[in-house]
Amino acid sequence: MVQSSAQLDAAFAALSDPTRRGILEALGRRDATISELAATFHMTLTGVKKHVAVLEQAELVTTTKVGRVRHCSIGPRRLDDETTWIAMYRQTLEERLDRLGEFLERQKGSQS
């Protein structure tokens, strides 16, 4: 079952930014601190914190604070509902393209 529009919107908004996608890829390899992510992406701590907050709001990243250090890891969401939505959209698009192809074939046949 596909999630509510707000949940899909949050996930797609989080994934729309290349830096956030890069952060997810980096965290897929290993957990990291905000400082480590900032160094990797040549950004300020504040900039990385903002990106991580968007990912955290979409439940794609979780953070824990140990002393003064914030550790980041992949969150609980696995994008199953987003994948389902994309598959449904793809099927709709393919069906429309198939109908267009059939129409064009009929038009070509009627002109002969």
Short description:
The protein has 112 residues and is α+β, with helices and mostly antiparallel strands.
Description:
This protein is an alpha+beta fold. The chain is built from five helices and three strands, in the order ααβααββα. The chain has helices at residues 5-15, 18-29, 34-40, 45-57, 80-111, and strands at 32-33, 61-66, 69-74. Strand 2 (61-66) and strand 3 (69-74) form a beta hairpin. Helix 1 packs antiparallel against helix 4, helix 2 (18-29) packs across helix 4 (45-57) and helix 3 crosses helix 4 (45-57). The longest helix is centred in the last third of the chain and has 32 residues, at 80-111.
Let me know the average pLDDT: 92
- Oligomer description: single chain
Q: How many β-strand runs?
A: 3
Number of helices: 5
CATH class of the largest domain: Mainly Alpha
| Biggest sheet layout | 3 strands, antiparallel
In terms of structural class, how would the helical and strand content be classed? alpha+beta
Beta-strand share of residues: 5-15%
Task: Describe the structure using short key phrases.
Arc Repressor Mutant, subunit A, 5 helices, alpha+beta, three-stranded antiparallel β-sheet, 112 residues, 2 domains, 3 strands
